[in-house]
Amino acid sequence: LAELLLAEVDDRDRRSTLRRIKSAGFPREKWLADFDFTANPNINPATINELATGDWIRRGDPLCLIGDSGTGKSHLLIALGTAAAEQGYRVRYTLATRLVNELIEAADEKQLTKTINRYGRVDLLVIDELGYMELDRRGAELLFQVLTEREEKNAIAIASNQSFSAWTDTFSDPRLCAAIVDRLTYNATIIETGTNSYRLAHTRARHRTPATGA
C-alpha cells in the first residue's frame, strides 16, 4: 500500500511539473543537459549550474543574457525556465514584441491593470529577443510598467542581441531607456554570450564529420 501511495504521489508530481512547463509557453523544448559549453567558451558552466538551483528566482533577482544571434541565449533562457518549472516555480515565456503588443491591446481594451497583474504574479518572467525591434514610446512605457511591478519581488530573465549601451536604438527615449536598464540590471546576473554563433559551430562540426557506410 505504501509503495502504491508513493507511486501515486510521484505520478501527480510528474503531471504537475508537465503542466507548469506547458503553461510557461515555451516555443520549443530546451534542456541544460543538451547545451554544449565547449561550443561557446564565453559561458561558464559553473555559473549556469548555480542559476539552475533557482536561488536567484527565490530572491527575485534579474538575469540578462547579452550576445549575438546563435550564441545560445534562447537555449539557456528556455532551459533555465524549464528547470525553474521543474522545481515548482510558476514561469511565463514571451517574446518582447509579443508582450508589448499584448499590453497595447490590453490598454486599448481597458484591461491593462489585469494584464500587468497577471504577468506580475508569475515567479519567473522570461522575455526573449528584447532589442531585436525598436519599440515606440508607448510600448516602452508599458513594458516599463511590467518591470516595475516585478522589481525586487519576482524574478525576470531576458535575452538581447544588443549591449546595454546600444539599447537607445530600441528605446528611443533616453531617460526611459536608462530606467529600464536600471530595473533589469540591479542585483542581476549578466552573462555575455559573445559574438561567435553557437548554431554555426554545430553546423560546421556536422559538415566536418566524415560520412560513414558503404
The first-to-last residue Cα distance is 56 Å
Strands of the largest sheet, in order across it?
2-3-4-1-5
Proportion in β-strands: 5-15%
The number of distinct β-strands equals 5
**How large is the radius of gyration?**
19 Å
H/I helix tally: 9
- What structural category characterises the helix and strand content? alpha/beta
Assembly context of the chains = single chain
Question: How would you describe the shape?
Answer: globular
Average pLDDT taken over every residue:
88
Describe this structure in words.
With 214 residues, this protein is of the alpha/beta class. It is 51% helix and 13% strand. The chain is built from 9 helices and 5 strands; from the N terminus they run αααβαβααβαβαβα. The protein has helices at residues 2-23, 45-52, 55-59, 73-86, 96-108, 112-121, 137-150, 174-185, 198-208; strands at 62-67, 91-95, 124-128, 155-160, 189-194. Strands 2-3-4-1-5 form a 5-stranded parallel sheet, with helices on both faces. The protein is globular.
Features:
214 residues, alpha/beta, 5-stranded parallel beta sheet, 9 helices, 5 strands, globular
Entry summary:
The chain is α/β, with parallel strands linked by helices and 214 residues long. Helix content is 51%, strand content 13%. The protein has a five-stranded parallel β-sheet with strand order 2-3-4-1-5, sandwiched between helices.
Question: What is this structure's SSE topology?
Answer:
Blueprint: H1 2-23, H2 45-52, H3 55-59, E1 62-67, H4 73-86, E2 91-95, H5 96-108, H6 112-121, E3 124-128, H7 137-150, E4 155-160, H8 174-185, E5 189-194, H9 198-208
Parallel strand pairs: 1-4, 1-5, 2-3, 3-4
